[in-house]
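batch job 7 of whatever, protein = Glucosamine-6-phosphate deaminase
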Amino acid sequence: MEVVVVPSAEQVASLAADAVCRLLQGAPGAVLGLATGSSPLALYAELIARHRRGEVSFARARAFTLDEYVGLPAGHPESYREVIRRELEDHVDFGPGAVRGPDGTAADLDRACREYEQAIRAAGGVDLQVLGIGTDGHVAFNEPGSSLTSLTRPKALAQQTRTDNARFFGGRVQEVPSLCLTQGLGTIGRAGHLVLLACGQQKAQAVAATVEGPLSASCPASVLQLHPHATVLLDPAAASALRHRGYYDLAWANKPAGQGL
């Protein structure tokens, strides 16, 4: 696992954008994995800025989102498909239908999950997956206890996650759906490159468990330890609980010039 600590959240977003842009410049038809929540918002803003400067195009790219609430109507401002549309898709040049998310309004949720898995495979898999991390170590909506080989499926949300996400629902926990559809840890692990972004003191313990703790379903994000190309981008606050912070800084400083993430 490649752990990179940079001085600010802005630099976390910039490094992640470098990786996305490098991929699309070399492979314009690449498949992106898009996360929601607060962690990737600065990345999306940076990608929009670079697109407006003519530095990157999404015209031939495709994208799959990680997860979706169950029960929110299409177009609800906090549905994750709507968040991605609002925060990225509407501001760049993705083609019609190029961005897809799990269908949280489906009558048959299990079938919707199977079809989503099939769609990702039919696209050739995700080339670069953007990830955030929850305070309990979840990635996507894979809560503690999730199988490390799980696939896209319906999942009940932990109370901690609903409490954390209440800020998007006017602070009203009771309005946060209790069920979701989420890519599984096994699904996420098939992506070619995992890029996890974490900023802020509230993420420090989860980051430490992910990077330096044991591989365990108790910290779903620890599955990144098994991936051949996983990058963890941190600001100093998110890195503050790491025991081997000096090693990660040294490893990054000694990386060959011009070599990307």
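notes: Residues 2-253 form a domain with the Rossmann fold fold (CATH 3.40.50.1360).
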